[in-house]
Hints:
Oligomer: heterodimer
CATH class of the largest domain in chain A: Mainly Alpha
Number of helices of chain A: 7
Strand order of the largest sheet of chain A: 4-3-2-1-5
Helix content of chain A: 25-40%
Number of strands of chain A: 5
CATH class of the largest domain in chain B: Alpha Beta
Shape of chain B: globular
Largest sheet of chain B: 2 strands, parallel
Strand content of chain A: 15-25%
Order of helices and strands of chain A: HHHHHEEHEHEE
Amino acid sequence: MxxxxxxxxxxxxGPVVVEKNEPVFHADWERRMFGIAAALPFSVPFADDHLRxxxxxxxxxxxxxxxxxxxxxxxxxxxxRERNIIAPGDLDAATTMMPRPLCVAAIRPDAVAAAVREGFxxxxxxxxxxxxxAVGDRVLVLNNHPRHHTRVPQYIxxxxxxxxxxxxxxxxxxxxxxxxxxxxxxxxAVEFDFTEIWGAQGDTSxxxxxxxxxxxxxxxxxx
Amino acid sequence: MPRGIYxxxxxxxxxxxxxxxxxxxxxxxxHHPHDHEEASLSLRVKALEQVLVAKGLVDPxxxxxxxxxxxxxIGPRNGAAVVAKAWTDPAFKARLxxxxxxxxxxxxxxxxxxxxxxxxxxxxxxxxxxxxTLCSCYPWPVLGLPPRWYKSAPYRSSVVKEPRKVLAExxxxxxxxxxxxxxxxxxxxRYMVLPERPANTDGLSETDLAALVTRDGMIxxxxx
Lengths: 223, 224
């Protein structure tokens, strides 16, 4: 969706403000929110695609003013409501037991370190899917503006680039975020000239690499 | 104010020794938006944790374990060790550039948000810098959790449009003939920059070299 999260190329946010000697967390509630977000997918299976989808649905004015872990809080509570795990008002009545479809046991403390070390790759290792693009191909990013979650930033839609790497086969966030299938497909690093994106204002000595799933692109004829 | 939230306020005041109870109570009724928002979020996150614990969906000790790992164990010193080894061991550097996850695993690193790590080598001709314009993707196993500025609108909006200006804000002035490659982490690949080894460091040990490596150097907003 063309949400407020898609910030590449927007003007007016001012200079980057760096905090000296920044701590990992700024408040205890940030620690707890991080811990909840890290632990919860073990018992309530959801992917980063779902977490991002719900963050992107936060009203634009709120998205741009809320603090980072507040976005996580809003997204996670939204996922929990969607799955009927908490009801509106449930945060006020902690003892209410709702049905828990698709939930499994909480991760145990002694399993955390190994789980973090293992990670959760969305690479679809076992699926053989032929690649239809190759390094060096010129491609056009389709000018689609879906209402659902997608990982194609607006600033490259309708732009032409060059495939510089084939990362392999990954689950497709557009469908996975809607629970309509993982649709694994090749994901490629595509390089764009700044002048292709920003026109006369584009830095001629700079390029940007964006990782794009195959179905968002079409191959262009060779020069 | 909902009853449950209010009871959480009392719990918070009782158990959090660092909190200033009167200030929390006062700020919940005054017009200081930041403090009010912080106090309110603190209560809401506490309520969320309590609900999830009551439902058996999270174990508070497991939350502590995640927090402990990312607050104390997994951070940019990991990445610095990787960089220092790459500077001193050409065979390791080749493996690192070829297959990031497998190479960092040799040092005991890897996993969450680094499952598909790609390492980008800076050279005198090419300067790489990473960003996530859509959210906050970042190579956790080597750099830990991202700083606020990396997740902020100013950085995410501008580095893909005016990278030289952004780098200059960080005090990094690149010669006009240096090519800049900006990597927008828009999918499941996580990027890390292998900075150039500083001049006059020939005699230094791997440990001494690692001490020269900064988080910003591995994001690509700084040179070392």
